[in-house]
Amino acid sequence: MNRKLKQALSDAFYVPPPARKAAFLKQHRRRELGRWELIALQVRYIRWWVWPLSLVLSSFILMTGTLSAESTPWYIAALTPFLALLVITENGRAQLYQMDELELACRMSRQSVILARMVALGLFHLALFGLLTPLLAVWSTVGAAQAGVYLLTPYLLTAALGMELTRRIRGREGLLACGAVAAVISVSGPLAVNIRPALYQPENLIWWGAALAAAMIAAAVEFTLNVKNMGELQWN
Amino acid sequence: MALDIEEQYEKIYRYCFYRLHSREQAEDITQETFLRWFASDTYRDTNQVLQYLYTIARNLCIDEYRRSDCDPRPAEPPCQETDPLLSIALRAELDKLDAEDRELILLRYVNEVPVKVLCGLYQQSRFSLHRRMKRILKVLREALD
Questions:
Q1: What is the mean pLDDT of each run of 10 residues along chain A (236 residues)?
Q2: Which of A7, A12, A108 lies at the smallest CB-CB distance from B45?
Q3: Backbone φ/ψ region at A33: left (φ over 0), alpha (ψ -120 to 50), beta
Q4: Interface check B91 vs A, CB under 8 A
Q5: ipTM of the complex
């Protein structure tokens, strides 16, 4: 629709301004939760051990990065799938305890809650990756771009596949399948090095970049589908 | 996540005004709609809020319309920024549309209600709603050209 017609329609549906709006809104002032307030609220409901476990896994990545004598830095990418697994299991907690239908009926929509928790954990993990990348660039054999790509690609790939699996397989089985996928992605790094030794070399960074872009798209698509799927459940 | 009540108040009020053609009644119905929403915890922060608000407003307008003798004449618009000829022609064309089509145009293009919400309100699939809006817009465009 062109702007002229849209403006003309707005004018055609002109209404005199409401007279009692300000008084009504003042009388019935409601404090709505903002986005960041909701995220801060949901942080408290994330299981406490998720945070230290994320820190421990990140420390392992850093330790192996700095102490390992390996020439191929596969170890950087080997542990990040488990960080993604933490996010997936946290989101699937309601399914695990068969409480998702109850959550759908709560005041806060399940979509908002899941979105808030994913943003909280995602930002925390991104902050950890942001911290790890320069440290790995300084203390290990890889550059900053390599470290960033090796950290993010398996993380996002696991997150995308995990969301796909939890969307298709409900309950405990779905979460077990996610664990299996995280393990497969984790071990595929060192296995792939045996088949293609140059996989982690800087000249293959462009392929890693392409894989990262694909993983980002897949994660975004899966996230949207997951949220939509929750909406469908809500309608029933 | 959170609904902008101030913005939605104006939109619900506009919707009620075009159903009732009375400023007082439209404002009463708008406030009643919001009070019912405030009283309902179930829909307070779900994605069905807009559909819920418009459904209450529509039902209350129907009740009000049956109860009282509403003036069926639409309100005269004041002097607008757009071309006055276009405005007159558009109003004439809108008057020719049936009430539900006119309401659909108001909701979609003036109140900017998402298509998903409209599908729920009119109990129509996205595809059939899209075809319906396309047909109405075609009529309007042809008349204005």
A1: 77 86 83 77 88 91 76 76 89 74 69 85 92 86 84 92 87 87 88 78 84 93 81 49
A2: A108
A3: beta
A4: yes
A5: 0.79
